[in-house]
Write a structure and sequence with these properties.
There is one protein chain. α8 links the parallel β6 and β7. Strands 1-2-4-3-5-8-6-7 form an 8-stranded mixed beta sheet, sandwiched between helices. The protein has 2 domains: about 325 residues, Zn peptidases (Aminopeptidase); about 35 residues. With about 425 residues, it is an alpha/beta fold. Bound molecules: zinc ion. The site of zinc ion (ZN) has 4 residues, from loops. Its cofactor is Zn(2+).
């Protein structure tokens, strides 16, 4: 065989080998994007899990069956051609009462990370229990109703709808939003700081804090609603986290004690002591920068701000995302929903007790100065900018303005009164001079 033929054979072999490699690569990529997955990857179990569309439809009809307790808003926001839509459900007993500022306000969000489907199922379960279509075992409904009468709860069942749709299209490991930004790194506290093991596929914080419409909507919601309790519900492990995520310490003093004792109670009595309890940064094994919970605690001044991680299969392969983040059999699916529903309702009841207790002073003092003028203005501008503003938002905006004017009015009244009094005291000095000065 001449050198020429040998070279020819070699190059043919090389072409053949690269063709095989290419074909192999092609089938893998093709298979993945098409939702046909390799053997070692668990597909979504559609017998247990709703699609996002079906879930939101079910929630909508639940709300329509219970207009006395539930109401629904759809909010959307757009940035550089990317649009996000969010459904917000509000629970309040005796719906017709005027907005009662003495009630405990709770804001819960689910599905911020796209692949964590189980969290959105928990949202549906909580709303079904709130509307009395489902029940918690061993809980007396009238006692529960006395607690619920003291609350207003806002639920965002699927925060990251665009990302979720990608997961439903077969990208089972996607956690970011519809344009690749991690919504739990897009907030302003310690934003953009990257650890050594930073992986853009997982943690891309976006081009700027609040660059994403989803984060803008959530932030606006926190500004208008002023929650006392915030829970960002995730999966991937079992944990009850309090601030901080960006450093490995917790807040100190009374806020720490209040949060820690609540989480210990939930863990011990409702979650079989399975959960890690503590600051996210200290317990999870990595620091997270620009998270929603750190913002809620530090900037929005929400006195009790948590991240709950409700399920995780730590033995699953890192490529097998559906299995890693979601229970795949009916027994564990039901156990997760039952245990965590019970834990949430216990949290509601502890929250109400704390409001009544001595500790409420600490919460109140922390809560009083929670709206900085900066936040107020940002909230205001966001309201103005958003042309999708619905009645509720306009109402909220109106309330904010009224609140601001009222503060101004009070301040000027006090000043006027002060001036008036000092005048009177000057003019009446001869009369009162009889007193020994
Ligand atoms: Zn998550």
């Amino acid at each position: 065989m001449g050198l020429h033929r040998r070279l020819n054979l070699l190059s043919n072999l090389l072409i053949f080998a690269s063709f095989v490699l290419f074909a192999n690569h092609f089938t893998l990529t093709y298979g993945k994007s098409n939702g046909t997955l390799h053997l070692d990857v668990t597909p979504i179990n559609h017998d247990l899990y709703h699609t996002s569309g079906a879930l939101l439809e079910e929630i909508e009809s639940l709300v329509h069956r219970h207009p006395d307790k539930l109401s629904i808003e759809k909010v959307s926001s757009k940035n550089k051609g990317y649009e996000a839509q969010m459904t917000v459900v509000t629970y309040r007993q005796k719906w017709k009462e005027s907005d009662d500022r003495t009630k405990l306000r709770i804001l819960l969000t689910f599905g911020q990370h796209a692949r964590e489907l189980i969290t959105t199922e928990l949202a549906l379960r909580l709303l079904s229990i709130l509307s009395e279509e489902q029940f918690l075992p061993n809980v007396d409904r009238s006692t529960l109703n006395r607690t619920l009468d003291r609350l207003i709860i806002k639920v965002v069942p699927v925060e990251n709808l665009n990302g979720r749709k990608r997961v439903e299209d077969g990208e089972l490991c996607e956690r970011r939003n519809g344009r690749g930004v991690d919504l739990n790194r897009n907030w302003s506290v310690d934003w953009g700081k990257k650890e050594k093991d930073y992986d853009p596929y997982e943690e891309n914080p976006g081009p700027a804090p609040f660059s994403e419409p989803e984060s803008q909507i959530m932030r606006k919601l926190s500004v208008s609603f002023e929650p006392h309790i915030w829970v960002n519900v995730h999966s991937g492990m079992e944990a009850l986290f309090m601030p901080y995520d960006h450093k490995n310490t917790t807040p100190d003093g009374i806020p720490y004690q209040i949060m820690k004792s609540m989480l210990d109670d939930l863990n011990h009595f409702y979650l079989r002591d399975h959960c890690l309890v503590g600051s996210g940064g200290a317990s999870v094994g990595y620091l997270a920068h620009g998270t929603a919970t750190d913002y809620m605690y530090d900037i929005a001044r929400v006195p009790m701000a948590f991240t709950f991680e409700i399920y995780g299969d730590l033995k699953a392969s890192s490529k097998d995302c559906f299995r890693m983040f979601n229970p795949i059999d009916i027994t564990s699916f039901n156990r997760v929903l039952n245990d965590w529903s019970a834990a949430f309702f216990q949290m509601f009841s502890i929250g109400v007790q704390q409001m009544d207790g001595v500790q409420s002073k600490a919460i109140a003092s922390r809560f009083d100065n929670w709206v900085s003028i900066d936040d107020y203005l940002n909230g205001y501008l966001m309201h103005r900018k958003s042309r999708y503003a619905k009645k509720m938002e306009v109402l909220d905006l109106g309330l904010q303005e009224i609140r601001a004017y009222f503060r101004l009015f009070l301040l000027s009244s006090v000043l006027l009164l002060f001036m008036f009094c000092s005048r009177i005291s000057k003019s009446t000095r001869p009369i009162v001079s009889g007193m020994s000065l």
